[in-house]
Amino acid sequence: MITTLTQISEESQPLVPDPVSKTVLMLPKCNDNELPLDTNGNISKSEPTVEKIEETKEISDISDISDVEDNVENNNNVENIKDNAESIKNEKPLPHYEKYKFLFWEFETPVIWVSVFFITLWHVLSVYMCCTFPLFDKIPLVIYATIIGGISGFGVTGGAHRYFTHKSYKARLPLKIILLICYSVAGQNTLYDWVRDHRVHHKFSETDADPHNAKRGFFFSHVGWLMMRKHPEVIRKGRMINLTDITGDPLVAFHVKYWFWFKLFFCFVIPSSIPPLLWGESWYHSICAICFVRYVISLNSTWAVNSFAHFFGNKPYDNYIRPAENLTVSFFAMGEGYHNYHHTFPWDYRAAEVGQMLNVTTLWLNFFEKIGWAYELRAPSSDLIQRITRNRGDGSHEKWGHEVPDTYSCPVATEVRKEQ
Ligand SMILES: [Zn+2]
Ligand SMILES: [Zn+2]
């Protein structure tokens, strides 16, 4: 853990900015023979020091905001340990799985065939409906389905992701209710599961504890992880994640408790009933458009962040991590494809430094800030982004990329890039 404060030195490079303590974790500088990576190719965190970063408006503004992710390490460790100790008797033991074999394939954990069946069924039916859909006769329905897709997308990106998981801004009650309803329209997992899985994903990225560990392959990171039992490490690490903000919020707890009904009505029943009732659309086509095609496209847009954005794209902010900048994903996922940036600065409400035109979520959050429903939106200073980029980026940053960082020529950095 962080123990000392040192002055900024040439021999160090920043790893992770911590907005709460206003510090940056520092690693030894990467020389040709001296590398800040452990034997597994991961960044070594064995002897980090802490450097005081220059205070900026952005940083000082956010310093008093409780950050749930940071709280896991900073404030609530003791509480967590106590809670864990008290609940340990009630906790189910971790499952132990042998390799699961099916025909020619071998899986780490057992396949959940019910999930395989329904996910496949929904996709096959959606493709059939797409192929037989009278597109030009149903323009109002297509526009309506696109709007519903946008609403559900905002529930995931602006709600579950940037607000509930990362606490990158604060929301007043009306916006909070809007976020919960929009998230219901998306019809994914309960908010509790979503937040826990995503916090574990950030904290233990590309390890066995990552629910959609991209090292297990593209298909697994995209949708396969929803078709299989969780790796025991995912469960173990998931239990260590602080979720008291979710369980302790009566509104969210209510939403989680009655999730089945929220999902049923807001994702399927209400949106598919509006076109027939409002302008006499056929029930069949409305259900096709809303309950299948829109739903499947929305799901895949979210999943693409875990797959495409962990496989394809450049890494201007941190070359040592797998997440990359992917504009196509950003288009479909309303600004969530700037994933190298997001994993470097997960507490930035924009989830991106550039490309605001594709970042529809940010445009909406800026609007809600204007009317006062969103406030204390968090973002790093340009100076901080520049420092991190110059030290750890792959040299592709449009502004600071011409200065190839020292680490870029580092042999192990090259190996890491190849491996990724
Ligand atoms: Zn990710
Ligand atoms: Zn995130």
TrEMBL record:
> Which keywords does this chain's UniProt record carry?
Fatty acid biosynthesis, Fatty acid metabolism, Iron, Lipid biosynthesis, Lipid metabolism, Membrane, Metal-binding, Oxidoreductase, Transmembrane, Transmembrane helix
What Pfam families does its record include? FA_desaturase
Q: What is known of its domains?
A: The histidine box domains are involved in binding the catalytic metal ions.
**Location relative to the cell:** Membrane
- PANTHER family annotated for this entry? ACYL-COA DESATURASE (PTHR11351), GH07782P (PTHR11351:SF21)
Q: Does the keyword Metal-binding apply?
A: yes
Membrane topology is: Multi-pass membrane protein
UniProt-listed GO biological process terms = unsaturated fatty acid biosynthetic process
What do the Gene Ontology cellular component annotations say? endoplasmic reticulum membrane
Q: What is this protein called?
A: Fatty acid desaturase domain-containing protein
Q: Which cofactor does it need?
A: Fe(2+)
Keyword Transmembrane helix attached: yes
Principal localization reads membrane
Q: GO molecular function of the protein, one example? A: stearoyl-CoA 9-desaturase activity
Query: Which intervals hold domain Fatty acid desaturase?
Result: 141-346
Similarity annotation: Belongs to the fatty acid desaturase type 1 family.
From the record, give the transmembrane residue ranges.
111-135, 141-161, 258-279
